[in-house]
Structure formats: C-alpha cells, structure tokens
# Entry
Amino acid sequence: MKKIIVLLTTALFVFSNSISVMAADSGGTNLEKKKEIIINEIDQRIKLLQDERVCVAAAQTKDEIKKCHEPIIAHNKEMKKKMKDSRRKGAASPSEEEQSN
# Structure
C-alpha cells in the first residue's frame, strides 16, 4: 500500500511540475531545456525508488523496511517545500531555480 502511495505521490509531482513548467512559458523559453529539466527530475525519482527497492529487498525487519522509505519521504517534503516557495516567489518551477543558481 505504501508503495502505491509513493508512486502516486511521485506521479503527482511529475504532473504538477510539468504543468508549472509549461504554464510559465512566456514564448521565449526553449522547449528542449524544459524537457531536459523534467527528464532530470524523473530520473532522480526513479533512482530514489530503485534505491528503496534494493534496500527493502535486503531488509530483515519491519524497522529496516521503514528506514528504507525515509529518503523518499525526505525528498517529497523537500519537493513540496520547493513548490510552495516557488509559488510564493512566482517562479516557474523549483528545477529552473536550481539550474539558474
């Protein structure tokens, strides 16, 4: 059940981030750059899920399984905070802010 929630949360981040990136298009931005940003974010989430899968497969107790999920929870909280901050600042997306820094 938790994996389903994680996957749905991940899909929600992908969807919401792609909408925010597309909505911020002022006509002068490069589509290829936006695609690269989105693909990089997807790759990052895939890596987190693969790491969690390896961890869960090696886990021997429920506590170890719970610890495997902690990096995903931290990532989701970080992404949520970045999205919230970017909305306050009026920025297009957290990823574009990271790339401009």
Summary: The chain is about 85% helix and 0% strand.
